[in-house]
Design a protein that fits this description.
The chain has 43 helices and 32 strands. The chain has about 1150 residues and is an alpha/beta fold. Helix 18 links the parallel strand 10 and strand 11. Helix 9 packs antiparallel against helix 10 and helix 38 runs antiparallel to helix 39.
């Protein structure tokens, strides 16, 4: 009679090309004999060439997975792990054998102390040498880094936790040598690095360090030692980083004396915190767990010398594991309490804390938690209410004795009947009181404020904003004061205001204030962080732009305030009054640079540019304090000087701040304008100045739209810079001025890490292969392959992976010179794309579908790829446009930017449906480098009615497969959104809603969460379910308030609600609208929406502006001419 086991254990093995069925048979027999009944299933990932033979073997409890080989053992092992359903799996090669005691293994793995560990470190013997690899793994916790062949217990990955398996329980012995790898078996990544080191003649320390890391990932420990040893010579960051990684690797391999020697160098070095962390890891490996715990008691969150900071809970979780393993209950209690109070682990923790607290009074536990001043007291009290007795007593103590801090919103108002209720309604749900200090309104501002639920006081106006604010603050008398103007609203993050009730007022909180204003014919926005949430004791100083005076620490919170007080109608009332006050303040303090700066901005906004420049000139820039507003002062001063024909002065000014503001797209945008203006004034210098102007606009585009730069104007890092770059480049073409090839891309690359773009040689011919997956595509494939001729001579091979065609697809591909592989289809697009990539040995790949055509300039593309390599770009985005038939673009001229060119040594595809390109470590790309359509573009002919219908049906079936597979939360969410899109395309909105609601019930931290909400709101709007759309939009605005697609949906909601003026205002401020999946709306579609809103408002000026925008989007010069004339008349 067999004993029923509670824990399930599988074995996985990868069969590489060249390994025989006899070897597999011998391996399977060994596993069965050694494990007896302790093993559930043997998973064999077969990447060889005898599929029919191996799939007909008929082994019991053996599952054969059909795979492919791309010299990446880590990726193959990960694919095999994804097929398992067990609690634990042992990873083996078929030439490896086991010894030890399988019952001991199960006993260790079933130990409750190891309930949260992800890996077990197993001794592996190769040629009489012993190594330690994480060959026992929980499949559901396996990291998604397919480039790692052998996982080790590294201190650089605190999120992974390990068990040490003793040799008496398990040892793996390899019957053949593993390293060094023959040249034909090394990974793409290692091959690329070795090529780079040959080019640098071995003198590039960064490359040597990266080679050491890659060798470590492959499990070639001895070779990694030697590379780290080479880099560790010296005192620069590379040397210290190499010592850290070397010491860590030695510790993982139980070479503790050598590791101790390196740690003695690191501990007095420049990064003692990380050295302490590594020393603690060394103590654990030495069996000194109590000493390791003592080291971690006062350790802050460490950061490797050349790495990113650890997660804030890394040390706390490590302390907790050690406390559990050593049985030190007090340390376990303090660690769990720390995680609990920080809000990191609340749900389910109450019962454990009560048990550790023991027989002491439960009220004392509540008092300890209160003394820690947690921001999560309500959630903590709720958790104790859900816990067994006496949890309710702890919860009662917290609720009865918690310090509940009062929160009041404070508004200074005068004649703000237009907006006062809107402001109050936006903040009232989150605060205890809204106080409005009316400074002498002649309209019904006070009455409207009271009707909205505010407390109104009347105070005299003394031309001093600080005095008014301070009087209002005295009257409010709260522990926290939220300062908001009447023409502002809380646009996002209001819930964080509610949390202030549990937060001790010991610091000042900054929020993001977004102001809208008109820039030419476009409404754009400016954002800046401002201190708006103040402890009750803080007061203001400054007559006009009052500033809070304090020496408290600052904290940023995710709250967005939107301000429309810079609209023309409001400015016409405010500016003269503020000018008068500013001049009075300057008379009292003539040397205050901030007052001069504010007066200059005021005069500039009024259009009195010479007077503004005069104020800027009076500022002594040599004595300017290092304040955030200094950035926008310099930028706006240069802008103003250029506007009054003082461009040389502007250029001189900007030249003084080249290094200081190189990170600012505003700075480079204005510099581009200055150079363009100089070239216009002095045509004889145009050949010299216009290329420099183009370079400045390209630099602005490289930087993009920063979110934390004081006074940044949205658009200067995107569409405004792109528009001006286009003007400069057209001027160069008209004048016959040569620009470097890379000047023709309006997207440009990130800052190069090696070399300058201008000095780079284009990549050699054959550096780019095309890869395709096909099935029964005889009707379309020929034109796709013929279009690839536009890539020559850069093109190397066309690699076609056929997934089971029954027509002449393969013959057509071979007739056009393509390399064809006869593969298989398993409902997984990513696997097929990766198999196609494995056919190529080129450094860059272009992914095409069989119903697409590519149009390229190979000379420019070769240069762009060289620039991308120097910048360490992984993927390049290119324009893909849908067509209903070859050459016929869809209505609206839509397109999207797709990452179709990538480096296979750094990226691969993930997700079965709607395959997504990711880094080999599983990360998603947050940055994108876009190539201009003049360099390369794609047209997709798969959008005809019949093909679209087929695609929808296929997507519906494949998303079921994706949902059933094991994947992370983001992938599950993506599969649900994919399913909803397919259901919507099939005319089934009800089930589409259900899929989207299931998606948004998952993790809100992913991009797909935003995408799900966008699709849900879109469906509600299109089905005229306006109330539901409004509710969902409120949620979306809570975490993506300034996102362009959020604003786009809000405009459509306003139109549906009949609020046409507000809808028009929003659409006018939009230019480049992109959804969460990266799909942009065409500018024509946005302009048409603006025109529709303008016509509904019956605003002649707005209609003329919309028509002008539409004419530019359509490149309709006649419409542009007519709209311009209408604007002049208006």
């Amino acid at each position: 009679m067999t004993t029923k086991r509670s824990l399930r254990l599988d074995v996985i093995a990868v069969v590489q090309p060249g390994e025989t069925i006899d070897q597999v048979n011998s391996f399977v027999k060994h596993i069965r004999d050694w494990f007896a009944e302790q093993c559930d299933t043997i998973y064999v990932y077969y990447a060889g060439e005898e599929w029919k033979a191996i799939s007909s073997q008929g082994w019991q409890n053996v599952q054969i997975i059909r795979g492919f080989w791309d010299n990446d053992l880590g990726r193959a092992r990960l694919d095999a792990l994804n097929a398992t359903t067990s609690d634990w799996a042992i990873i083996l090669d078929i030439n490896e054998r086991l010894s030890g005691d399988p019952k001991k293994i199960l006993k260790i793995l079933e130990n409750p102390l190891y309930g949260s560990e992800d890996y077990a470190s197993v001794p592996l013997k190769v040629n009489k040498k012993k190594y330690y690899y994480g060959r026992l793994v929980r499949p559901q916790n396996a990291h998604a880094d397919g480039s790692i062949w052998e996982t080790i217990d590294t201190g650089f990955a605190p999120e992974r936790s390990f068990i040490d398996i003793p040799e008496s329980a398990l040892q793996v012995t390899s019957t053949s040598s593993k390293f060094p790898l023959p040249e034909e078996k090394i990974s793409r990544r290692l091959g690329r690095l070795k090529k780079d080191t040959d080019l640098s003649k071995g003198n590039d320390r960064q490359i040597s360090y990266e080679i050491a890391q890659e060798l470590q990932k492959l499990g070639d420990i001895d070779a990694a030692y030697q590379e780290y040893k080479k880099v560790a010579i010296g005192e620069d960051n590379w040397a210290w980083a190499a010592r850290e990684a070397w010491a860590d690797l030695l510790t993982s391999q139980k070479r503790l004396e050598d590791a101790a020697s390196l740690l003695e160098q690191l501990e007095p070095g420049p990064n003692p915190e990380f050295a302490t962390w590594l020393r603690a890891k060394w103590c654990i490996a030495s069996g000194k767990t109590s000493q390791a715990l003592d080291l971690m008691q006062h350790l802050e969150c460490p950061t490797p010398t050349l790495g990113t900071p650890f997660p804030e809970d890394a040390v706390l979780r490590a302390r907790l594991r050690l406390a559990c393993h050593t049985g030190r209950k007090h340390d376990e209690l303090t660690s769990r309490l720390a995680l609990f109070i920080a809000g990191i682990e609340i749900h389910g923790a109450g019962k454990k804390l009560l048990k550790l607290w023991g027989k002491r009074r439960p009220e004392e536990l509540g008092e300890v938690i209160l003394e820690a001043r947690s921001n999560h007291l309500e959630a903590i009290a709720d958790e104790f209410d859900r816990s067994p007795y006496p949890g309710n007593l702890v919860a009662r103590t917290i609720r009865e004795h918690r310090q509940r801090y009062s929160v009041a919103a404070v508004i200074i108002a005068r004649d703000e009947a237009r907006c006062i209720q809107r402001c109050i309604n936006s903040i009232k749900p989150f605060v205890d009181e809204v106080l409005v200090a009316d400074t002498g309104s002649e309209d019904n501002t006070a009455e409207l404020a009271e009707a909205a639920g505010a407390r109104v006081i009347h105070i005299p106006w003394t031309d001093n904003f600080s005095e008014a604010h301070n009087t209002a603050l005295d009257a409010a008398g709260a522990d926290w004061h939220v300062i908001i103007d009447a023409d502002e609203v809380i646009a996002a993050g209001g819930r964080e205001l509610y949390d202030l009730h549990d937060l001790s007022p010991e610091f000042v909180l900054t929020v993001n204030v977004v102001s809208s204003f008109r820039l030419g014919e476009t409404i754009t926005t400016q954002s800046e962080p401002q201190s708006r949430i103040l402890p009750g004791t803080v007061r203001y100083r400054g007559i006009i732009h009052a500033t809070p005076q304090h020496d408290l620490p600052l904290r940023q919170v995710r709250i967005t305030i939107e301000h429309d007080g810079y609209e023309p109608e409001q400015l016409a009332k405010k500016l003269p009054r503020r000018e008068k006050m500013l001049r009075a303040a300057i008379a009292a303090e003539p040397d205050d640079p901030y007052l001069r700066y504010q007066l200059g901005r005021n005069l500039e906004t009024q259009g009195r540019l010479p007077e503004a420049a005069e104020q800027y000139d009076k500022i002594d820039r040599k004595t300017l304090p290092p304040e955030p507003w200094q950035h926008i002062l310099i930028v706006q001063c240069a802008h103003t000087l250029t506007s009054i024909n003082r461009s040389l002065d502007a250029l001189t000014l900007l030249g003084e701040y080249t290094d200081e503001f190189d990170h600012s797209s505003d700075y480079h945008f204005v510099a581009g304008n200055v150079l363009l203006d100089l070239a216009t004034q002095q045509p004889e210098l145009a050949a010299e100045l216009l290329p420099q102007s183009a370079a400045e606009f390209r630099r602005a585009l490289e930087i993009g739209e920063p979110t934390d730069l004081f006074g940044h104007v949205n658009g200067r890092g995107s569409y405004l810079a792109a528009c001006n770059l286009e003007i400069v480049e057209q001027g160069c073409r008209d004048l016959g001025i040569a620009l470097p090839d890379h000047a023709y891309t309006p997207s440009t690359t990130k800052t190069l890490q090696r070399g300058d773009a201008e000095d780079l040689a284009p990549l050699p011919n054959g550096s780019l292969d095309v890869v395709m997956i096909v099935k029964n595509e005889e009707a379309h494939l020929a034109q796709t392959l013929e279009s690839c001729e536009s890539l020559r001579p850069l093109l190397g091979e066309i690699c076609v992976y056929d997934t089971g065609s029954t027509d002449t697809t393969r013959d057509i591909a071979r007739a056009h010179g393509a390399k064809v592989a006869e593969g298989f289809w398993d409902n997984n697009y990513s696997r097929a794309r990766n198999a196609a990539a494995a056919m190529s040995s080129a450094p860059w790949l272009l992914v095409l579908d069989a119903d697409e055509r590519v149009f390229a300039n190979p000379t420019r593309l070769a240069h762009e790829l060289a620039v991308a390599e120097a910048a360490n770009d992984v993927a390049l985005y290119i324009e893909a446009a849908p067509t209903s038939a070859p050459g016929e673009r869809m209505q609206g001229n839509e397109y999207w930017m797709s990452p179709r060119i990538y480096r296979p040594d750094l990226a691969h595809y993930a997700r079965p449906v709607h395959a997504e390109l990711r880094g080999l470590d599983g990360h998603r790309f947050n940055e994108s480098t876009e190539l201009a359509p003049e360099t390369i573009r794609i047209e997709n002919d798969g959008f005809g009615a019949s093909r679209t219908k087929n695609s929808v049906q296929r997507a519906l079936s494949l998303t079921k497969v994706a949902k059933a597979s094991r994947s992370d939360t983001a992938d599950q969410m993506a599969a649900l959104v994919d399913q909803a899109r397919a259901q919507w395309g099939a005319g089934d909105p009800d089930n589409a809603r259900k899929s989207l609601h299931a998606a948004i019930a998952l993790d809100p931290s992913t991009t797909y969460y935003r995408w799900a909400y966008q699709w849900l709101i879109r469906i509600e709007l299109e089905t005229e379910n306006i109330d539901a759309a409004a509710r969902e939009l409120d949620v979306l605005k809570g975490f993506a308030p300034t996102d362009s697609y959020t604003r786009w949906l809000e405009a459509h909601l306003k139109l549906a609600q009949g609020q046409t003026s507000e809808a028009l205002h929003i659409v006018q401020s939009l230019d480049h609208v992109v959804d969460a999946a990266g799909l942009p709306l065409s500018r024509e579609v946005v302009a048409e929406a603006q025109l529709a809103a303008a016509r509904q408002t019956d605003d002649a000026l707005a209609i003329a502006r919309a028509l002008l925008r539409l004419g530019k989007a359509r490149n309709d010069q006649e419409l542009v001419h007519k709209a311009s004339a209408a604007l002049r008349n208006a």
